Amino acid sequence: MTALPRVPRLAVRDLGVSFGSLEAIRDVSLHVDDGEFVSILGPSGSGKSTTFSVLTGAVAPSRGEVLVDGAPLAGRRDHFAYMPQRDGLLPWRRLIDNVTLGLETRGVKRAEARARVAPLLEPFGLAGFERSYPAQLSGGMRQRAALLRTIAQERSVLLLDEPFGALDALTRAQMQRFLAEQRDRFGWTVLLVTHDVREAVGLSDRVYVFSPRPATVVREVTIDLPRTPGALAGPAAAAIEADLLETLLETRMCPKA
Predict the structure, then answer these.
(1) I want to staple 113 with a disulfide (CB 3.0 to 4.6 A). Which of 19, 100, 130, 191 is the partner?
(2) Can you tell me the distance from the alpha carbon of 150 to that of 241, in angstroms, rounded to the nearest whole number?
(3) Number of Cα atoms under 13 Å in the Cβ half of residue 207
(4) Is the pLDDT at 91 greater than 80, yes or no?
(5) To 10 degrees, what angle do helices 110-121 and 139-151 make?
(6) Measured between alpha carbons, how far is 113 from 131 in angstroms, rounded to an integer?
(7) How far is residue 136 from each of residues 86, 140, 142, 148, 150, measured CA to CA in Å?
């Protein structure tokens, strides 16, 4: 019996986005399989976040389609949980009420929402801080809270838009390692936007490289490395980083017509 082709959890086909005469995205196609971690890597202003805006419904595509589990997105956005660069915690709400906010906006009662997130506080390093306000938390704790708020929504795909870009280098490295560990533990399906080559290599199963605007996919790279600190600091990872960086430099020096 012939095996049926695997249907990606998320597929973007021939996506195009224009704002008047400004073409932001040109014929972008990509996919994310179930349980896969995929990154979009590109220079600033290359259309990475615009792609996310299409997925979240903030921007309507000019052409192309988005499929989730093989079916057209068709105006539904409840497949995705979105985490922006800034943590977005509300300063007047305690941590427990910030991490349940996404559930509450979907109509989940506060008590039930708290019960859902309670088992995740310990693995996220937030147990004991439930009643703390955002101003009382470190930068890393705030980002872990924002990530918990995102995954607590139990969506099919996590959309992470440069979630650690506002952190200092040490906290950023700690959060990258934390995300990798939790993703392995829970099997999340993730699409990450980043301009950080090392972050893309350290976290991803595959990387799509975007050109400068109008964005097109210039390369798709599989990251076939063991997910261990030693391997990711070794020569194989360094070679992939150098290759991706060279691709980015080449695309910037060769503007499209």
Answers:
(1) 100
(2) 29
(3) 26
(4) yes
(5) 120
(6) 15
(7) 17, 12, 9, 17, 21
- Mean pLDDT value of segment 173-202: 86
Per-residue pLDDT reduced to its tens digit, 92-120 = 999 999 999 988 888 889 999 999 999 88
- Enumerate residues 6+ apart whose C-beta is below 8 A from 41: 194, 195, 197, 200, 207, 208, 209, 210, 244, 248
- Cβ-count burial of 22 within 10 angstroms (0-12 exposed, 13-18 middle, 19+ buried)? exposed
| Torsions phi, psi for 239 (to 5 deg) | -65, -40
Residue 172 to residue 188: CA distance in whole angstroms = 20
Picking from 163, 164, 221, the residue whose alpha carbon sits closest to that of residue 41 is: 221
Task: Give tens-digit pLDDT for 141-167.
Answer: 898 899 889 888 888 889 999 888 777
Q: How far apart are CA 235 and CA 117, in angstroms?
A: 40
Q: Which residues contact 7 (CB under 8 A, 6 or more apart)?
A: 69, 70
- Averaged confidence pLDDT in the chain: 86
Largest CA distance in the chain: 60
